[in-house]
Amino acid sequence: MRHLARRCRRAGAAAVVLAATTACGGLASSPASHSPPASFPLTISRTGGIAGFSDVLVVTEGGQVSFTRKGRATRRCQLTPGAVERVTSAASQVPWSRITPGRTRPSFPDDLVTAVQSPAGGPVRLDDQQAGKGRLALTGLLDDLSDPATAARVCPPL
User: Fold this and answer.
1) What count of other Cβ atoms lies within 10 Å of the Cβ of residue 3?
2) What distance in Å separates the CA atoms of residue 29 and residue 144, rounded to the nearest whole number?
3) For 125-139, how does the pLDDT look when each residue is reduced to its tens digit (9 = 90+)?
4) Rounded CA gap, 92 and 30, in Å?
5) Segments making up each domain of the chain, as ranges
6) What integer is the mean pLDDT of 147-151?
7) Is pLDDT of 24 > 60?
8) What span, in angstroms and rounded, lies between the C-alpha atoms of 96 and 130?
9) Which of 22, 89, 90, 112 could form a cystine bridge with 134, CB 3.0-4.6 A?
10) CA 29 to CA 20: how far, in whole Å?
11) CA 132 from centroid of its chain's CA atoms
């Protein structure tokens, strides 16, 4: 009987704490803990494929880019304001908090994997529906920077 009374007191104390924190709007925390995690820097990678890609693109919130391609020197550039807007919009459309990190290694020898990761979540393959509506713009940025004809227009060198 004494054991049952002790359990009831503990459960009652836990209920009081739960009720108090719920009534006060949750546990005490700083305002920053309620804001979503930052999406930048974004890291977009492309690996595998018949050509054996090994590309890594890192984009900061301000649009500075570091682009490393297999066998080439790292390219640093600044995205144009329009490109910054497209990337920022695309990053905001990725449901980072709901992403289940996926397999980002090629599944077979010529599997081309393009993936994105940020401090807010990932990695997720950009051909995966859970990457959201922004996935096409992110893939497009990687394609634009890979093509010398469009790279200088979209991202002039620093």
Assistant:
1) 6
2) 43
3) 999 888 889 899 999
4) 23
5) 2-29, 38-154
6) 92
7) no
8) 9
9) 90
10) 15
11) 11
